[in-house]
Design goal:
The chain has 435 residues and is α+β, with helices and mostly antiparallel strands. The chain has helices at residues 17-21, 24-33, 50-58, 64-69, 86-93, 97-100, 102-126, 132-149, 156-166, 176-198, 218-223, 230-259, 263-287, 319-322, 357-374, 429-434, and strands at residues 36-38, 45-47, 62-63, 128-129, 293-298, 302-304, 307-309, 314-318, 379-380, 386-387, 396-397, 401-402. Strand 10 and strand 11 (396-397) form a beta hairpin. 46% of the residues are buried. The protein binds protoporphyrin IX containing FE.
């Protein structure tokens, strides 16, 4: 079969300035005409079909270690499980459940719920948010990581600053001077986490260990695991920050961008409760995957359902393209909030499937659920937000939100619809509890 000649000239290449804003027309064309495509611009293979991406992510002939090495950080930084394969990877991943498994998540759930309420209280006082990613997404991501690590509120600002600086490591096409800064930031983040881990066994003033303190955090359990060296443990923490902080923050922005202009969906979500919000979160992640692709290298010739890739090639599994494959998702460009099943690839697949998928769905859904209940008239406001030029994560800048009148959230006990607080006054979670 002859290969098609390549992306038609009228379609912006997905990595060009215009394609970074709207890559979907190019992805649609590639998926339909050449789902396993050698891209002449980058020399990489772009795999855009759902079935091909699933096969690729599972195939041991595609090395994550080699695929991620191009953007792996200083050699003297701890190894991350994302840059290992096979048994090395399995050994590093297994203890990760101490940080992100069911018991760990249960132990931080109440704390994250309280942080989310406090975050929405602060937002209610402002009423209009100039940038919802900065004012909702980033503080949520900081609070979630701080709960996992047992960092108090007084360390949130430092964690956020370090996480932001280290996040440039996500972008595989960052220019060299930016990548250099990212590597330096990764070193600083690692030293911060190392110093924090040192304090875990240390009792507080008067030799007292506060109940629920850092020594009881998921991080403390991970740090005590004899299967990991200290550096390996720090590698897991560093990956959680770089792979988790900004993607979670941006996922909130991307979700609001789709959700807020659709009053019917917001009303359905108010009625659907937590489970419905988690279903919607999956759909919102499908539509705008914050991590749109992930890299691998072929260690031998590979035959995928949609084509053949020779050995030694860099391959991108384009998760964002697979997530809109019409062979799997009916009406793939539309938000179908209750889509089920929804086997999207926003969290990847195969052995490197995101360890925090449950955490992300739970914490994202909690925020959305409480936001649509407390601010039933929330809407996008101000100038049209812009998709940033970064490739990973896919993110919006200038996402203005007018929260509108706030109503007490009696989600646990009361009916979904509540009368608005007079004049749109701030209504806090504490007020709601006493209402
Ligand atoms: C919306 C937010 C997130 C998205 C979309 C996301 C997506 C992904 C994807 C696509 C991968 C697979 C990468 C690959 O196969 O090359 C991955 C891996 C991973 N993610 Fe997430 N992630 C998110 C948040 C988080 C958070 C908050 C954490 C930790 C607190 C986290 C921890 C990890 C880890 C440890 C891995 C590596 C797993 C392995 O190599 O076995 N992620 N994530």
């Amino acid at each position: 079969m002859t290969k098609p000649p390549g992306l038609p000239a009228q379609l912006a290449h997905p990595f060009s300035p215009a394609g970074r804003v709207d890559p979907y027309p190019a992805y649609d064309w590639l998926r339909a005409h050449d789902p396993v495509h050698r891209d002449p611009m980058t020399g990489m293979w772009l795999v855009t079909g759902y079935e091909d991406c699933v096969a690729l992510l599972k195939d041991p002939a595609l090395s994550a270690a080699a695929g991620q090495r191009a953007r792996s950080r200083d050699d003297d930084l701890p190894v991350s499980m994302l840059t290992t394969d096979g048994v090395d990877h399995a050994r590093l991943r297994a203890p990760g459940s101490l940080l992100l498994g069911t018991a760990a998540l249960a132990s931080v759930a109440d704390g994250i719920a309280a942080d989310t309420d406090a975050l929405l209280d602060r937002a209610a006082e402002r009423g209009v948010l100039a940038d919802a990613v900065e004012e909702l997404g980033a503080p949520l991501a900081t609070a979630v990581l701080a709960r996992l690590f047992g960092l108090g509120a007084d360390r949130h600002a430092t964690l956020a600053e370090l996480a932001r600086a280290a996040s440039v490591n996500l972008d595989p096409l960052a220019p060299p001077h930016v990548a250099r800064l990212g590597r330096a930031a990764m070193g600083e983040l690692t030293r911060f986490l190392d110093a924090h881990a040192d304090t875990l066994g240390v009792p507080g003033p008067g030799g007292v260990r506060e109940a629920g303190g850092a020594h009881e955090s998921p991080l403390a359990r991970l740090a005590a695991d004899p299967r990991l060296t200290r550096r390996e443990m720090l590698g897991i923490l560093g990956l959680a920050v770089v792979g988790g902080w900004q993607p979670l923050a941006e996922a909130v922005g991307n979700a609001l961008y789709w959700l807020l202009p659709r009053p019917g969906v917001r009303a359905a979500l108010r009625a659907a409760g937590r489970e419905g919000a988690e279903t919607a979160m999956d759909e919102l992640l499908r539509l705008e995957a914050p991590i749109p692709f992930t890299a691998r290298v072929t260690v031998r010739d590979v035959r995928l359902p949609g084509g053949h890739v020779p050995a030694g090639q860099r391959v991108l599994a384009v998760l964002a393209a697979a997530n809109r494959d019409p062979a799997v998702f009916a009406d793939p460009g539309a938000l179908v909030w209750d889509r089920s099943p929804n086997p999207h690839l926003a969290f990847g697949g195969g052995p490197h499937f995101c360890l925090a998928a449950r955490l992300v769905k739970q914490s994202g859904a909690l925020l959305l659920e409480r936001l649509v209940r407390r601010f039933p008239e929330a809407a996008l406001s101000g100038a049209e937000p812009r998709w940033a030029a970064t490739l990973i994560p896919r993110r919006l800048t200038g996402l203005g939100v007018d929260l509108g009148p706030c109503v007490p959230d009696r989600a646990a006990s009361g009916p979904a619809e509540q009368p608005a607080a007079p004049g749109g006054e701030a209504c806090t979670a504490a007020e709601a509890a006493h209402a």
